[in-house]
């Protein structure tokens, strides 16, 4: 698929509406994704209302795509629906635990990627927001998610109003392991990351951030240990709050 080879993240959208019929068709096709035990452990909240998008924005660090995109989709790990079905059919569900959350989150992320691929093939642009698992409590409150439902991914959707440069990717030989995992030697790391480190924009990042290496931008500025630990504790609390703590 050319749309996969040429894909890029879209952060600026035309204000043309995304028809509900098209969106629902893409979602229905996305739901054909592989799923744990054919249980379909996911739900999707569709947000179109401008006020609701404005209320969602702080949970995503006020990234402008949240309010400017015609549609915001929140993909959720959902064991609530399946558990209710079990209870109504005289079965006792035992899904209030971490492994069940992980199964549901995997289901939801498989569907998320399916949708993104289909949406881009249909001419839409998307942006994946990793902030969803940073502030899940805010999203849970706003979207009124019940127990056993946790947001795991947010996608902004619309018709592209830009054509940015494609982001770089690591060479495939640095990612694929034949038969067994081959750990990386220092020379292999140098080779794998040489292209990324040599890009003019990345050299500029290093310069303006006054760091010695590109890696330090990730460890010291963008994804700091202290931030990761803080948000990890928040996610643990959310899993307990939503019932995945047994």
From TrEMBL:
Belongs to the flavin oxidoreductase frp family. Pfam families: Nitroreductase (PF00881). The keyword Oxidoreductase applies. GO terms for molecular function: oxidoreductase activity. It comes from the Bacteria. It comes from Phocaeicola plebeius (strain DSM 17135 / JCM 12973 / CCUG 54634 / M2). The keyword Transport does not apply. CDD domains: NfsA-like. Keywords: Flavoprotein, FMN, NADP, Oxidoreductase. This is Nitroreductase family protein. SUPFAM superfamilies: FMN-dependent nitroreductase-like. Residues 4-159 form the Nitroreductase domain.
């Amino acid at each position: 698929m050319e749309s996969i080879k040429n894909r890029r993240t879209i952060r600026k959208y035309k204000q043309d509406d995304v028809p509900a019929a098209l969106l629902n068709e893409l979602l229905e096709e996305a739901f054909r994704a592989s799923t744990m035990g054919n249980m379909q452990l996911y739900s999707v909240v569709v947000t179109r209302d401008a006020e609701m998008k404005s209320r969602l924005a702080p949970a995503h660090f006020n990234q402008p795509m949240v309010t400017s995109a015609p549609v915001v989709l929140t993909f959720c790990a959902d064991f609530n629906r399946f558990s209710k079905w079990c209870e109504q059919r005289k079965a006792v569900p035992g899904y209030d635990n971490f492994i069940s959350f992980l199964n549901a989150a995997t289901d939801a992320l498989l569907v998320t990627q399916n949708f993104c691929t289909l949406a881009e093939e249909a001419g839409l642009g998307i942006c994946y927001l990793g902030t969803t698992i940073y502030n899940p409590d805010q999203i849970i409150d706003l979207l009124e998610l019940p127990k056993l439902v946790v947001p795991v991914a947010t996608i902004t959707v619309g018709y592209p109003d830009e054509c940015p440069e494609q982001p770089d990717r690591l060479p495939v030989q640095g990612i694929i392991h034949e038969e067994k995992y081959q750990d990386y030697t220092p020379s292999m790391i140098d080779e794998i990351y040489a292209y990324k480190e040599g890009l003019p924009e990345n050299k500029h990042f290093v310069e303006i951030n006054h760091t010695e290496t590109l890696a330090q931008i990730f460890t010291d500025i963008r994804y700091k240990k202290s931030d990761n630990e803080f948000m990890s504790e928040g996610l643990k609390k959310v899993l307990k709050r939503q019932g995945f703590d047994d």
